[in-house]
Amino acid sequence: MNKGKDVLQSHRNEQGYNIYKAGGVDRINETKFIVESQTEKNKYYEVELVASDFCCNCPDYEKRSSWLDCKHIMAARHYLAAYAMRKQAFI
Ligand SMILES: [Zn+2]
User: Fold this and answer.
1) Buried (b) or exposed (e) across 48-70, using 16+ Cβ within 10 A?
2) Residue 88: beta bridge partners?
3) Which of 8, 20, 40, 72 has the fewest beta carbons closer than 10 A?
4) Cα–Cα distance between 9 and 14 in angstroms, integer?
5) Predicted confidence band at 18 (pLDDT cuts at 50, 70, 90)?
6) Rounded Cα distance, 3 and 5, in Å
7) Domains of the chain: which residue ranges?
8) CA dist., res. 50 & res. 6, Å (int)
9) In percent, how much of the chain has pLDDT > 90?
10) How far is the CA of 62 from the centre of ligand 1 (A)?
């Protein structure tokens, strides 16, 4: 069963990376991101960092958040990882 989860999560990771690469992530403030929908034009989802957990307002998150991160959350993670790397490069 775990293997199925890994496959689904890595698929979302890939989709999230594509969204991030295409410039689909906007950081609104410290904890809030606006992430473009991959399937619908001009549709955006809100990803928010609460404590150290991400939440999103897309249907995928609503259905599967207990065991899976949606692609918007993954996109925000890629954004943050790249940001952290850039920051380090300037120290
Ligand atoms: Zn989402």
Assistant:
1) bbeeeebbbebebbeeebeebbb
2) none
3) 40
4) 9
5) very high
6) 5
7) 2-90
8) 24
9) 85
10) 8
